[in-house]
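Blackboard transcription, Thursday session:
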Amino acid sequence: MVFLASERMNGRLLVRFARARLTPNRYDLIALALIGAAAVLVVHGAQQMGLPLANLHTVPVVLDPARLPEYALRTTLRMFAAIFASLLFTFVVATVAAKSRKAELVIIPMLDILQSVPVLGFLTFTVTFFMGLFPTSELGVELASIFAVFTAQAWNMAFSFYQSLRTLPGDLDEVARQFNLSPWQRFIKLELPFATPALVWNTMMSMSGGWFFVVASEAITVGKTTVTLPGIGSWIALAIERQDFTAVAWAVGAMAVVIVLYDQFLFRPIVAWADKFRFEQTASQEQPQSWFFDVLRRTRVFRRIAAPFGRALASLPRPTLPRISLPKLGNAGSVRWFDRLWVVLVVIAAAWAAWTIFRYIATTLTIHDALTATGLGLLTLSRVLVLIVIASAIWVPVGVWIGLRPAWSQRIQPVAQFLAAFPANVLFPIAVIAIIAWRLDPNIWLSPLIILGTQWYILFNVVAGASALPGDLKEVAGIFHLRSWQRWRDFILPGIFPYYVTGALTASGGSWNASIVAEVVSWGHTRLEAAGLGAFIAKATTAGDYPRVALGISVMSVFVIALNRSLWRPLYAYAEKHLRLD
Amino acid sequence: MTMTLERPAQTDAPLVEVRSLKHVYGKGGGAGLLVLEDVNLTLKAGEIVGLLGRSGSGKSTLLRSIAGLITPTGGSVTVSDMAGDDSAHGVAMVFQSFALFPWLTVQKNVELGLEAQGVPVEERRKRTLAAIDLIGLDGFENAYPKELSGGMRQRVGLARALVVQPSVLLMDEPFSALDVLTAETLRTDLLDLWSEGRMPIRSILMVTHNIEEAVLMCDRILVFSSNPGRVIAEIKVDLPQPRKRLDLPFRALVDDIYARMTARPTGPPIRDGNFPGSGLGMALTHVSSNTLSGMIEALAAPPNHGAAELGALGRELRMEADELLPIAETLQLMRFAEIEGRTIRLTPAARRYADAAVDERKQLFAQHLLAYVPLAAHIRRVLDDRASHQAPATRFRDEIEDFMSEAYAEETMDAIVSWGRFAEIFAYHEDDDRFSLDDPA
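(Written on the board underneath:)
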């Protein structure tokens, strides 16, 4: 990149245009076509969102394949609106948590809990709230849907950003302080770049999870209110109601196309770009590749046009961020005392909130309902655990087999990530048709649905773990002719364990959420139901029974948090301590 | 393009004045670790001053106090700004780890300080290119740090510090992360720039643990003791530049500094060497039993025949004082060696150790460990007393943390576990963090 002096810019720029090969090359054409098309689509979709609410009734969703691209576009735009909101949330909340100890004491435990709460259950409340906010416009319902996706995405992103801010390299921090960087410069030059790789990865995971929620939140019935936003989710709902199998197949195809496009045109380029922010100062062995990113880098006109914008952006007046710092109190003792007081206040507020929820539930429900919900929770818990075990038994050997063969893992890895992003609820009708056709017991055969979309996290983490097994250890295992069981027990399983735990933890969290839509399914007028907490919440939502929804969510949150604390966290800590391969 | 900066005229006014500096790390309420005590320092224009000491002597803390990165617990630091100069800060710092932003190009890295000062784009670019030129980085403006070798990275660090025109350049072990050859080239280049007056600075203050480096570069050397850090000697180096490592006066001065760095405080000789504290409160340095054996063998073998001058030994083994001294002092602590002045001498036990086979060595090591390292004896006694012959390690960790900071306790426990395992006086189980008497079957 050449830096031009501002006063000489015009003259020099003309010379450049004349001399430099500024004729667009073919990469410019590719980039222009793609970016132009994206811009048109975004504008079109955004105009649709602001239409009056009545429009939803006058222009209902129809099962016409010609309309499918538009529905796919609307679904995608909701996704991106949510991810944008999540990023804003991340930057503000995580930064505050990292810089203020008092805020940290509240925000971090809250993020931790929100990460594991079944967000689908919230739909009931958020739809009501946002429709109240914009009673006459489609915007209210759109916001409710976007908010549902946001609640599935934001927490782990904020967590990752917070952790990056807390682990800034000490020497770079000293450089920033020594040169007296302003808070804004510090954010742009140090904090944001350092946090980027982890944030990109978490955003990608959030997006993968998000497709599931955007589909689930488009067509929703809360009591007497039924909302169907134009989108793939509503298409599926309608296809189920009409028992239209062809339409289901269309939706599956459309979703696949959307996810391939988003993967190729957005996330692979971003991951390839984010590689330069990796903190290791050695050149990485394996750089992520993206053909689209390469196209963008090879363009001539685009880069020239973009450069002045970049400079203009750089010369904009800097927002003055407040320097967040606590007033220094007299000595360490009084600081500790102050912290304790703050903790006490927070605990009182939390207790008050819990009491409010309890009183709300207790006005209409009895201890008997709570016991029922807990019993159903145990059913769903056993479902989740059994399925994690079964999925592990299948995918760990497969993943290891793939991971140990580099040629295979390079091809399979993107497929597994694609499958993880693919919203499994689009596939539910196919399973339901099969269960009805063969008259299977829904209590057993609906269960696999809750892990249908999340099992892939186990697969691609195990593949990653197996391909990261060090070559010298592989050679040792070969030289000493380790036999199959010893090879697995002493080498492969310990080696992939940290990766496996990450995958299983993600799969387990996702499964609880999925149970809310997977334990009650229908095909036309046939309803299949499996006894479980997910079905309890789903039925209460349809009936508009708010206290039961609140009870269901509370119980499920307790289950998820208990499972995380008693099973996944200890496994994670063990893996961190004993099984790290570096 | 010419460097627009000029080396200001020398004056006698001190650039940096440090008075009775004291710093305590860690726990509030007096239980913290005293790293600096009563340190005084005056830095004048035209001199390169070295702060020489072992790790833990607080020399980096002193440097960071002057850089304004640490607020010392007590005492005062005064940095005089150059009169009539527009630069806001009188000091800039070069880091041991280079501390470059991996996502910024060389040019952007160098510009960082100027951008923070709000220097206009055009002037920023001019000054940056001049600094890059000066330091020999021409042609690398658009490279990213990861594409550069260690030596080139430190040149970027140097350019970044110089471009803000500080009156004092602070350097924190700037060459210790580089290989020998690269470090020497960079030292020579820096000395050339300094003697030709081409750098816009008036003085250099550098931290090092390399005695030869200090003698090679500095006009004045302050030698620090460890735990707590105090200035125990101030040495003026009058040798003419360029200095040659093989010259006799040069080597004499290096040997003399070795002796000063191992010198015990006045009073009756303390057999624990420079290990702070006594009894259970003795902070140990984790030196592998392999290294201890190797040092005993090296001392027993010709040409040393049981005794050597520390400086010569360091040259023979290619070790810096910072590596050599902890080994020597651990040997002294266990009565395998005695240090007198600049000489280290093996004890009769160590001579036997050198000739012994593995089992006898382990027995000797065990005897000395139990006799002279109170913590080892204490752990063994507790294990003997208990019926189960087991004890959680946290118990001992807590005990020694009454005497020292967490980091020192960690290192002490590492040392005791490693030595205890070699001597086979007890076993340690990492899984559940406990000591036991049982031999691994």
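Lecturer's comment: The longest strand of chain B covers residues 33-43.
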